């Protein structure tokens, strides 16, 4: 590797926050050299300190936090010593800039877009207002805002999420910073938009020669953008190296676990490797390796002495005792070997074809369903003319971007949202509209739901005991108090929680545990059918695998049927038997999982597939992005139909399109 | 400048890369190398155990409220006034029930016999003031509680049941747009004036503000996922409101309750002063103020004593209520 210039160097940085009178050490001696012009990705779970660490480069720590140790050298100055806002303003924006996660809140809603870009140019570059205006327009064009001259005078609410993020990037880049910190810049965006934003940032980096720090929890994004990767855990960088080294030859057990837990690397039908437990409490002093209590192969020494960095290559360092020559040899797990190509993944082994099974039983049937919100002129059709069947024992996935109506469909089936046309059948009986009390109880027992947000889906002011037994209480499904408690205990054990948790309040649990409480709440009803509404998208990578495994286990034990709602095709590939792709309230393609991945027909499905971030740098760097343009469909003359183009493979299109799909299938 | 950084790093080629020798390690841990580099036992339950944070909502509320010394002082001040109103009646030289008008004793300034002086018809003012204090506080407490019960129940329905929204909004518009004084005048003239009429009319016109407040909050919580989950589980409306939503509103309800006490006392005083509130023979602070209206320029003590008590009670409650609302906001618990 050529000797590169170090642009910023953090050494033994320690950052502490004071919370309720206690000291929390968020960053515990973190060192990092940033080379000029590189793209470094920092990966870690929430709470690992990745945001806090980089915010300290900009002096943007929250009021109650401060750098309490170490140094951050930038342009020959230790910026960790800067105190006043005035000093920081020299650095912030002009030298080091930041792009935040949520484009919805990072723009001023009362100012025109152009003005906001102009403002940052005027602040950091010595230009006249007229020149600044020209420059702002140029920047907007550069970040790919179409018709920039007109949109210059628009307000943020007239922009979509992806477009807003482009504007935020324009503002950050307009000051020509040397370092650009992107803090989860695409987490709030849809997959297809995410891919475009990533490509944009890469372009801009080439154009302006910026150094970029990327903070993300998504290893797919990391593989796409990063040259170097740093893995953070409990306030320390535990492994750092070139992207290839981290993905193909990781050395720290935590990196293994993080990569191994990705559903993309899992084998369908097998358990994903998981990381149990939660990251350590940073209020406490940590001795030894912080990851040890969650590491199945921890050494005695891991509990006693903090491991030093061991060099694997000149660019690759890992902080684990496993690299010590005295340590026993531990094999990398299989999923890592699969990734580095030493083992091949055989997706073709999945030969189950549910559509060929003549005995399958239809559990849920949706016919011509339409859901509308609002009334009169403000009426909005969220779901239009959707029909599908869900068979007993399968996992049926519904995939689409935000606002496509997938959650609405799930909620219509559990009767939270009323439908305005069509009908829903459960075991052949109509359950939409007015139904008898008896059937109502039957549906409540039979169909349950798991929610997306583990924070919002539990009543904070009720004990776990109450939350879990809410359903059985309503339908009087127990004889006496003892039986009720027994049922709660059993449900908690089933989802891998301790029975004593029943007497606690939800706020004492981590996200993954809370999600499992939500599953226990549904499970205690002994349902046949569960709507899982993005059950893992709000969870950390390491916890996702736990929940996916649990869902699969329960399916096997109780013969459950799932409607799995997701925006992420990679997860769906791992868990689903059949997949329906939904776009703007309409299902555009439905097929068995592997068939869909092998022969995507609808252009939207293809765009979605091409945008999936794969945790493999080699794949990510050579990938070609397909962009979906709804105007390719010309439905003015021929009306589109819902057609079974192959047995079990449905697609939405008009005659001409179907013809071309058939031709594509032949080829 | 960057060169200086460069040289710094040349001096430290492997930063942090201390490799401990076996001896050093054994010395640090008091354990043998063999042992140190053997696998430790893995305890899955250990990994599952949570950081038991021991946070409790009400404990935090009290902790923060008690930190606000001024507010606590205000609460103590109010309690002192309230308790003293009983003590004062007991130690006073005259009983309220046995007061008789006496022309010879008119307008006596406070002295050893008449601690607060006498009024325009020669009755002891001390016992009147403290008796009136009790009446006013009693009225305020009844009205505040009544408003609270009616307002919370109807507010919850208003917020949760979409179909009722229009109905309640129209009621709100009517009650809000016509000044209370007009209703009160009509009621005073048509039905009469008494303690209980006053209570009921105040509750009747003021519950809507509590209800509006509650409704806005219910609106916020109604479509949270945990409520959707309850609906999926077939939980009845009443249970959802009382178990899922009400606990989140308690701090706001208590705040409004605390603030409605001073505002009711203020209302009562204003209305009685205008002759629309209680009837003249029911002693309340408002009535005393009204009675003193004609004489206070010559005999200011007639105004000062009841006015001081009204001020103390309202200001104390207002400040304490505000402090409590701060303490009850979970965002301040960090």
> What is the number of beta strands of chain B?
0
Uncertain stretches of chain A:
none
CATH architecture of chain B: Orthogonal Bundle
Using the alpha-carbon principal axes, give the shape of chain B: elongated
The description of the largest β-sheet of chain A is: 8 strands, mixed
What does the average pLDDT of chain B come to? 82
Given this structure, which CATH class of the domain at 356-593 in chain A is correct? Answer: Alpha Beta
Sequence stretches where pLDDT stays below 50 over 5 or more residues of chain B: 1-17
List the helices and strands and how they pair.
The complex is a heterodimer of chains A (667) and B (334).
Chain A: E1 6-19, E2 22-35, E3 39-43, H1 50-55, E4 65-74, E5 77-78, H2 85-91, E6 96-99, H3 113-124, H4 129-142, H5 148-151, H6 161-174, E7 179-183, H7 191-208, E8 211-216, H8 219-225, E9 228-233, E10 236-242, H9 243-248, H10 253-260, E11 310-311, E12 317-318, H11 334-339, E13 362-373, E14 380-391, E15 395-399, H12 406-413, E16 421-426, E17 429-430, H13 437-446, E18 447-450, H14 464-474, H15 481-494, H16 511-523, E19 529-533, H17 541-558, E20 561-566, H18 569-575, E21 578-583, E22 586-592, H19 593-598, H20 603-611, H21 617-621, E23 641-646, E24 649-653, H22 655-666
Parallel strand pairs in A: 3-8, 3-9, 6-7, 7-8, 15-20, 15-21, 18-19, 19-20
Antiparallel strand pairs in A: 1-2, 1-4, 4-5, 9-10, 10-12, 11-12, 13-14, 13-16, 16-17, 21-22, 22-24, 23-24
Chain B: H1 2-11, H2 22-29, H3 33-36, H4 44-48, H5 57-67, H6 69-91, H7 125-160, H8 165-177, H9 180-190, H10 195-222, H11 225-232, H12 237-274, H13 285-292, H14 301-328
